[in-house]
Design brief:
With 265 residues, the chain is an alpha/beta fold. It contains nine helices and twelve strands. The strands form two sheets. A seven-stranded parallel β-sheet has the order 3-2-1-4-5-6-12, sandwiched between helices. A five-stranded mixed β-sheet has the order 8-9-7-10-11. 37% of the residues are buried.
């Protein structure tokens, strides 16, 4: 029997890919497709919006029907409503929303006492492996090597730097046993002076339709090591989110889980 999932942000780029992949997954079904009330596609068939054929599930500005988990790739403004819905139904929640603030994190922490959930800055298997590798390389090289993180995304991305770039910077900071907030350097402009040895540089580029490139540079006065991940399509993120949902629907108790647990790292 297939599990049904509700997708929040269903008319967006990630939402449409999720609908397509759910539709082709033998173990999943689309249970609901949710969008903001201002979306001009409200009322249209979600399958037709995602170009997969009619599914008889309309885009709606409210949660309707039965589903076993929620996947949200919408926006920070919609997060509270999604969390409340998952808690009221006592079902798992997968959050792919970036640009979260302290109040959003507090909301997720509170919800984790009642439902199983995963929030990840990136659901790609490759990126989650990169988090682990970046931490190991940072530990091995030490602070003799300058560390810089560069991320490149499409022109439509609303937040900067990306959650993935911050995740990579946090991995480096963890290996060096420093507080990222104290050593992060977000871009450089003007007469900045010599680079501080403890800095972890984080830089954002926005151009065209680039899905997502992330590079971590470790460099000293003689060599450099670069760790690079390039996403070719959004399917890398969508497949990871579906994998996370399946993981949580395996009768997981309430709690905040990680993609590392999902992937067995």
């Amino acid at each position: 029997m297939s599990n049904k999932v509700a997708i929040v942000g269903a008319a967006g780029r990630m939402g449409r890919r999720l609908i397509d992949l759910v539709n082709s997954d033998a173990h999943l079904q689309l249970g609901a497709a949710v969008e903001v009330s201002s979306c001009p596609l409200i009322g249209q068939d979600a399958g037709e919006v995602a170009s997969v054929g009619r599914l008889d599930i309309p885009l709606s500005d409210s949660f309707e029907g039965h589903f076993d988990a929620i996947i949200d790739f919408s926006s920070p403004d919609a997060l509270a409503g999604t969390v409340d819905e998952a808690v009221s139904r006592h079902i798992p929640l997968v959050i792919g929303v970036t640009g979260l603030q302290a109040e959003h994190n507090a909301k997720l922490e509170e919800a984790a006492s009642e439902i199983p959930l995963i929030w990840a800055p990136n659901f790609s298997v490759g990126v989650n492996l990169l988090f682990r590798i970046a931490e190991q390389v940072a530990w091995a090289l030490g602070d003799d090597y300058d560390a810089e993180v560069i991320e490149i995304h499409h022109r439509f991305k609303a937040d900067a730097p990306s959650g993935t770039a911050l995740g990579l910077a946090k991995a480096v900071a963890a290996a060096r046993e420093v507080n990222l907030e104290k050593v992060a350097k977000y871009g450089r402009h003007g007469r900045t002076g010599e680079r501080n040895r403890e800095e972890i540089g984080i830089h954002a580029v926005r151009a065209g339709d680039i899905v997502g490139d992330h590079t971590v540079i470790f460099s000293c006065l003689g060599e450099r090591v670069e760790l690079i991940h390039r996403a070719h399509t959004r399917d890398a993120f969508a497949q990871g989110a579906l994998r996370a949902a399946k993981f949580l629907m395996e009768d997981k108790p309430p709690g905040k889980y990680t993609m590392a647990q999902v992937l067995g790292f």
